Amino acid sequence: MALRQLILCLGDQLNRDAAVFDDFDKSTDAIWMAEVPEEATHVWSHKARITLFLSAMRHFADGQRGSGVTVHYRRLGEHEHTSLASALAADLKRLRPERVLVTHPGDYRVYRRLKATVRAAGLRLTVVRDRHFFDSPERFRVWARSRKQLRLENYYRAMRRHHGILMTGDEPVGGSWNFDADNRKSFGADGPGLLPQPLRFPPDTLTREVIADVERYFPQHPGRLDAFDWPVTPEQARDALEDFVSHRLPAFGPYQDALWRDEPWLYHSRLSAAMNLKLLAPRVVVDAAEWAWREGRAPLASVEGFIRQILGWREFVRGIYWLRMPEYLDGNALDAHADLPAFYWTGDTDMACLRQTLRQTLDYGYAHHIQRLMITGLYALLLGVEPRQVHQWYLAVYVDAVEWVEAPNTLGMSQFADGGVFASKPYCASGRYVQRMSNYCSDCRYDPGKRSGDDACPFTTLYWDFLQRHEGWLRDNPRTRMQVRNLERLDAGTREAVRVSATRHRRMVS
Ligand SMILES: Cc1cc2nc3c(=O)[nH]c(=O)nc-3n(C[C@H](O)[C@H](O)[C@H](O)COP(=O)(O)OP(=O)(O)OC[C@H]3O[C@@H](n4cnc5c(N)ncnc54)[C@H](O)[C@@H]3O)c2cc1C
Ligand code: SF4
């Protein structure tokens, strides 16, 4: 029988409720999926990231087959194709579908290639809206057109109103759009105490097979797999959500910016990868959090802070990505050209904060937001690393890394490479910030209070050097003017000593 519809299903589209399946008929239609080396090698992917994608894909395919759906699945090692385009081209020839459909891909590169491949086969690719998200690229574009500046706060309020989340009529519940005054705490000298440990999902037989394949086909890739415990099915993702809402959401708000040695998870949800692979819908996550507040199980400050990340930031960065691609990846507003230090791939550095964050990243494929923004991201910004190299590193090493969310966070928020499309100022700070928010510095050979000299904290040295290098335009920005005023208080000798120390440090890490 002729194949009526072939639905292309990518590794981050594992959702049978997607709109692309609305007209799916088991007797005439089929799903197409492929594991290809290129998706693990176009950036040098962490083993846990590859494992998560492949395991979730195989679980999804098995589930579909179990319910009688035909799945044309290309498994790693069982075919010769290295790229999605080449595997698809061969299968279109073989299967000869009448129509080819795909949910709007999350990666511009993949989107273009799939379109070109289907066109070359004499067919047209139907791209279906991704209703996983609250917003759409088209609606975001309309919103953006009416704005002089694209700022999260305006967008987030519009989203709250439009979707009626944490609202009483037209007003935010609790009388305020945000509760930052109650949040952003550090743990203080006593530390966090006993933390609730997240629910783990030890590898089942299928995941163990994937792990063996990853070790076999990608042995030189970064990262370890012995601690792999990410949810790989929708059921596990729901359990992870429940566990987070019951045990960590109540304290999420106050401690969302805090850092602590040997505590990778703190009160974070660990749900980004499950959402990005579409094992879990953001609506379900947001509803669960809102209900926890309505039932008195979590305070409003935590619930609002958490919902802001998903309804606000997550949707906002996606809007920016599709608004600005493909030129977004070329941004280098600060004219930064240094190479990413080699220790980003090993964690071998004497800077304690970076060592902690990098080793944890290699162990789990995870670092929480402030580690990504204010440790690895901040250091690369201050050092002046070429943004594209920073982008490629972030896209490689985190289990939740998909380009629509990674690129705006890295290039916009963290590296200011877009010159302020995304953030109103660069997130630049000295080692004093790290000292205030964590206990990393007490385990470090450097002194966060020192600007120059052998034991000066490299973050602090590079921060004052960064201010000097960018003094002109930072003075013109009302949000960084104060930082430049502090720089102006330094005498010429101090400034020179900073420059000398910064140059020495740069040489040492290059
Ligand atoms: C340089 C840099 C790169 C990043 N790369 C990615 C990436 O590749 N993939 C990714 O999902 N997130 C990325 N983020 C955002 C954020 O750091 C992660 O979503 C978060 O750390 C994931 O951990 P969690 O699920 O425990 O999050 P939580 O702290 O529990 O937050 C809850 C959820 O909110 C969402 N969220 C929070 N912050 C952001 C944000 N800034 N942008 C978008 N969504 C957000 C995530 O879905 C997350 O699961 C990046 C941030 C930075 C600064
Ligand atoms: S002293 Fe500087 S390098 Fe060391 S942990 Fe603190 S911020 Fe990091």
Give the gist of this structure.
The protein has 510 residues and is mainly α.
Secondary structure elements and pairings:
Elements: E1 5-8, E2 29-34, H1 38-41, H2 47-66, E3 70-74, H3 84-95, E4 99-103, H4 108-120, E5 125-128, H5 137-145, H6 152-163, E6 167-168, E7 171-172, H7 205-217, H8 234-247, H9 249-252, H10 272-276, H11 282-294, H12 300-324, H13 352-364, H14 369-383, H15 387-397, H16 403-414, H17 431-437, H18 458-469, H19 471-476, H20 481-488, H21 492-509
Parallel strand pairs: 1-2, 1-4, 2-3, 4-5
Antiparallel strand pairs: 6-7
Protein described:
The protein is mainly alpha-helical and 510 residues long. It folds into three domains: 5-128, Rossmann fold, CATH 3.40.50; 137-198 and 248-324, Alpha Horseshoe (Serine Threonine Protein Phosphatase 5, Tetratricopeptide repeat), CATH 1.25.40.80; 342-509, Orthogonal Bundle (DNA Cyclobutane Dipyrimidine Photolyase, subunit A, domain 3), CATH 1.10.579. 48% of the residues lie in helices and 5% in strands. It is built from 21 helices and seven strands. The protein has helices at residues 38-41, 47-66, 84-95, 108-120, 137-145, 152-163, 205-217, 234-247, 249-252, 272-276, 282-294, 300-324, 352-364, 369-383, 387-397, 403-414, 431-437, 458-469, 471-476, 481-488, 492-509, and strands at 5-8, 29-34, 70-74, 99-103, 125-128, 167-168, 171-172. The strands form two sheets. Strands 3-2-1-4-5 form a five-stranded parallel beta sheet, sandwiched between helices. The termini are far apart. The mean pLDDT is 97. The structure holds flavin-adenine dinucleotide and iron/sulfur cluster. Keywords: Lyase. InterPro entries: Crypto/Photolyase_FAD-like_sf (IPR036134), PhrB-like (IPR007357), Rossmann-like_a/b/a_fold (IPR014729), UV-DNA_repair_photolyase (IPR052551). It comes from Aquisalimonas asiatica. It holds the Pfam family DPRP. This is Deoxyribodipyrimidine photolyase-related protein.
